[in-house]
Amino acid sequence: MAFLPDIVSRQSASSDTTEIIPGLSDGATTEVGRQVRDCLGGTQSCEDNSTKNYTAPGPLGSSECTNDACCVWDYIQRDLVQIFQSLDGTCSRLARSSVRLGFHDAGTWSTTSGYGGADGSLLLSSDEINRFENNGLQQVRSTALGILDSYSQYEIVAADLVQFMHNVATVVCPLGPRIVTLIGLNDSSVANPSGLVPGNNATDGEYLIELFRNKTLKPRDLVALVGAHTVGQQYFVDPSRAGQPLDSTPGVWDVDFYREVTSSNSHPGGFRLSSDEALANTDETSSSFTAFGDRNTGQTVWNAEYATAYVRLSLLGVDNINHLTHCTKVLLDAVTSFSSPSSTPTSPSSSLKILRRISLTSVFAWVALLAPVSLF
């Protein structure tokens, strides 16, 4: 496998204990730092199932809004919800693309990389976006850049926006988790290290496990994160089957993905990534597919563990965790029950209206809604 980057193996007797995230290596010295430490350590949930009761204290630009670091994000989430929700209650293609965008921006970090991670470089670097593993993200990137431009006077940054879009998307997707959301990341326009986000050639389970161990993520964390393929479609692994979903309910954040990957038969019209099959058949990760796919407990267990794994991923390379601001309160309530809809087409009218308001060109705005999604 000469085409794969060299990986420093971290296997040891303690390799699967919970590691201190590097951004807190000098200690959790603030309330938000302690919250992050506790949620990653398992003594506090990284999933917030409380009801939204936050109201922006004033209009954008007002002193009341300016003095509340979360206020502008409440306005942004309103815009995002309108383009992330389909009329049938499922999450839109743009929402699903935003899930992948968050992964690919944060995942470009390892314990030996020296830099990279959740720094907005996938939006700000003209080189990073053109890597083969980022195929299909160009259009959602254009949407994000339009939002960034529209709200630039309120001093939002790309790194925050990318991770915020992910978290809004997951809670808009029916059954998805309401993940702890932190604001205050630092931007970088420098292209992050290459070879740290798995591409279409990632077909070896042990390779993937080691790749993510070097991001301080355990094998079970990796399986939890891979479950986001429940809202994925593939376009580039096999172009002749472009658009095929990775499970039978691509607009719903459910655990069908885990059961279908391990089933002897693919669902009609569906597609299996070799990377998913490899993990499902690797000793260190196969049992997690069973646990997350359980019809009775899987959804609850997976949502909680996905939230924990994603908070860790979203803070890779972040060195100011103690100084971030907790803005989970602006997110919508989680959709905890959902019946699969009939195949009702989604009207583009509301999406176009909001996308135009955030000052995108009409071409990029509408094409972004059709952006391909595949996390690997």
From TrEMBL:
Active site: 104
Region (Disordered): 1-27
Annotated binding of Ca(2+) 1, by residue: 105, 117, 119, 121
Cofactor list: heme b; Ca(2+)
Domain of life: Eukaryota
List of residues binding Ca(2+) 2: 230, 247, 249, 254
Residues of the Plant heme peroxidase family profile domain: 117-340
Enzyme Commission no: 1.11.1.-
Cofactor binding comment, as recorded: Binds 1 heme b (iron(II)-protoporphyrin IX) group per subunit. Binds 2 calcium ions per subunit.
Binding site for heme b: 229
Gene3D superfamilies per the UniProt record, alphabetical: 1.10.520.10, Peroxidase, domain 2
Feature type site, description Transition state stabilizer: 100
GO biological process, one term: response to reactive oxygen species
Pfam family, one: peroxidase
Stated family: Belongs to the peroxidase family. Ligninase subfamily.
Protein name: Peroxidase
